[in-house]
């Protein structure tokens, strides 16, 4: 089958993960007690949620749509047929979501190239701040009047929705690089830098607002929650990033593997430890700063050694991707889903995204790009998926862990609109970026790569 043969390099990887899952379950069945390894137990239900999500992702990817839609669909199906009962393993579920968030934040931090940021600083900041502010404000206002969310919750929802999907964007850019499209004016570096900065800003501010919303202290402590969290995150991330520059030695045999393990554990401790000390806003920032400081130092010493760590993190994401999207889909229960929430959520999302595209295009004014290239850079901010899957359930998890019943319904609304954002923008954004690239971007005829890469 020509289609299967063409897609085999891509589909073979998740298929290999399915086989790994199969081996792990067989080993578990052989050595663990029956209550842990039986398919009807809570632990195995959780495992089969991820296995089914991976399988659905493979099937959907064969149609040309993003595999994350299949994973999301499996999670929704799993919950609405009554299989999503993970009694006794709720903390495992929350931890897996946190690991997915850690993975995304580390990749975002490593994706910030200091040299590219310095060369295109004004342009990147313009493309990051102006559309982000416009979209967050639009979501906050519309959700306040249409979804009856308080202003802080509206801003929180806006920060979730404004993040650009690095998974969708980078996948499309890799395909364009093979076809040598858009390499002549640093468009690839510009889009990747804009995506990384946008995600870093959204994740950081999301952590700050989430910490303020769920702060249980007096007014003074609530006001200081954000600034203290910022200081803790910056100090922790800088120290961990500097440590990764010198430990292990550059001449050690397993340097990159040890760096990956240390970076992953440092990021995990940043997220779970910040909650333990009462400043959850420090978690995301500490994780991102760790990766940025370490990655910047690694790039200065040839060969570019952070590429290896990024590769390991990307491999880890292959495991955590079905976890993240199936778990967010699992929270969509049709029996309690209000049609009004879906309708007003879709209106809020579409108006905000339209405003983002308008302000994003206006932000490209004054550059050397043609109008088609400006339109393509603008379009790259449309897909929402990866960061939404990580951030969307965070408020719901925190409300459950703190037993904050008053905030539960609002957190559920944030999650529903997040799911809508993934469904409405991820496949359409990927399709438009692929189909319009040959028309809007120039094809390079020489072997020159992106001038800023």
Taking Cα atoms only, what radius of gyration do you get, to the nearest Å?
Answer: 21 Å
- What is the name of the CATH class of the largest domain? Mainly Alpha
Average the pLDDT over all residues and give the rounded result.
Answer: 84
Silhouette: globular
The third-level CATH topology of the largest domain is: Na+/H+ antiporter like fold
Order of helices and strands: HHHHHHHHHHHHHHHHHHH
Helix content: over 70%
Biggest pleated sheet: none
Q: Tell me what portion of residues adopts beta-strand conformation.
A: under 5%
User: What structural class results from the helix and strand content?
Assistant: mainly alpha
Low-confidence stretches: none
Taken together, the total number of domains comes to 2
Total of DSSP H or I helical runs spanning 4+ residues: 19
Distance between the termini: 37 Å
Gross CATH architecture of the largest domain: Up-down Bundle
Q: What's the count of strands?
A: 0
Could you name the key traits of this structure?
77% helix, mainly alpha, 19 helices, 453 residues, 2 domains, globular, Na+/H+ antiporter like fold
Structure in words:
The chain is an all-alpha fold and 453 residues long. It has 2 domains: 2-64; 92-440, Up-down Bundle (Na+/H+ antiporter like fold), CATH 1.20.1530.20. It contains 19 helices and no strands. Helix 5 packs parallel to helix 13 and helix 15 packs antiparallel against helix 16 (371-379). It is globular, with a radius of gyration of 21 Å. The chain starts with a helix and ends in a 13-residue tail after the last helix. The mean pLDDT is 84. The chain crosses the membrane at residues 15-34, 46-74, 94-116, 123-145, 151-174, 186-214, 226-247, 341-363, 414-434. One of its GO terms (molecular function) is antiporter activity. Residues 56-425 form the Cation/H+ exchanger transmembrane domain. Keywords: Membrane, Transmembrane, Transmembrane helix. It comes from Anopheles maculatus.
